[in-house]
Amino acid sequence: MQNLKSVLDAAAGEGIISTEQASTLVPYLEERGVTFSARTDTGATDIAGPRGGDAIAPVEDTEAPRFIRGFHDVLITIGIVIVLSGIWGIGSFFAALPAIIILAEVLVRRQRLALPAVVLTIAYIQWIFVVTLIGLDEAFGESVDPVLQFLVMAVPFPVALLPFYWRYRIPLSLGLLILSVFTLALALVFMGLSRATGDPDFVSNRPAISSTILLVTALGLFAVAMWYDLSDRLRISRRSDIAFWLHLVAAPALLYSMLAFVFLGKFDSSIFSGDAGATKALVVVGIVILFMAVGLIIDRRAFVTSGLVSLGLATASILQKMQAQPESYAFATLLIVGLIVLTIGVGWPHFRRWIFAALPPALKEKLPPLR
């Protein structure tokens, strides 16, 4: 059921009324007994359509996409995993595609089950990857240019995902389709530069240029994710789910491309080794903190979780520089990172409120509201 405030907030998000008018209308209508009743239809929820028929979650819960409506979805999903595993085990891997399509027709297109839709999309992606890998091995063998291999691996994904999304309208499939387009564009750029310079190892031999290209690509993916986010600031439609999946990929891509850019393509395990200076580890910590702040501003926790590995390695490196014993700084690192995660998780709305106070009003109106 939708409550009155949720509907008026949605109207404000669509630009029908202003936010101030929405907050003023709530007590006015409630005093006059205006309420909304629950829907009486029990039809299956359309995972590709708006969430208008669903109960709108509180603001602090709107980041989560719709995965499950009950244990029925879990049971069906377990059955999907077992059936597909059996087909892949006793039959040809190519036989898995008809099974995926048949299950998608029944469970996604007809019954509109969200969790099975996610699992079937992942299975479809896995099928594309394995088939492409087999075809690449048969066509080129082991003697293939790495950049050409990257390009050949990237081509089938947007081609295969486009009809899959058109047919089933699964938010995850659209997110993967957008990601595959960016990946293909990246492969074409590297292929062109490799051919233009005559250097088959362009990426490794020109780390500064390569890291810049990776950073620009990651920024483009982040921009698309933000477009979906800002078009649904109250997160009441499927666009929010698409933005969730895009942020889930854009956050780590942006983080590690930025680290590669800062360290001129030399971002690897040597940054956290004992021979590296503590300054480099502090730079990593600073970038991770910046990403956490971005996550708080846009209300996306993916920007917090994407930097946990780098934060842990940098913290361990700093403790190592402080001459801590190996058996102690490993557990100290886990303790520090765990406390940071718990602190941010528990205090998320309070931290958002503190950061929001420093933002201009025009920007606040475009971002997800505070609870």
Structural summary, described in words:
- Mean pLDDT is 81; it is low at 37-46 and 52-60.
- By secondary structure, the protein is mainly α.
- It is built from 17 helices and no strands.
- 32% of the residues are buried.
Task: Report the biggest beta sheet as strand number plus sense, adding barrel if it closes.
Answer: none
| Average pLDDT number | 81
What is the distance, rounded to the nearest whole angstrom, between the alpha carbons of the first and last residues?
19 Å
Strand content: under 5%
Number of strands: 0
Q: Figure out the total of helices.
A: 17
Uncertain regions spanning at least 5 consecutive residues? 37-46, 52-60
Radius of gyration (Å)? 24 Å
H/E order of the elements?
HHHHHHHHHHHHHHHHH
Quick structural overview:
70% of the residues lie in helices and 0% in strands.
Pick out its properties.
mainly alpha, globular, 371 residues
Helix and strand layout, with pairings?
Elements: H1 4-13, H2 19-31, H3 71-90, H4 96-110, H5 114-140, H6 146-154, H7 156-168, H8 171-197, H9 202-205, H10 207-230, H11 238-262, H12 278-298, H13 302-305, H14 308-321, H15 326-346, H16 348-356, H17 361-364
Helix pairs in contact: 1-2, 3-4, 3-5, 4-5, 5-7, 6-8, 7-8, 8-10, 8-11, 10-11, 11-12, 12-14, 14-15
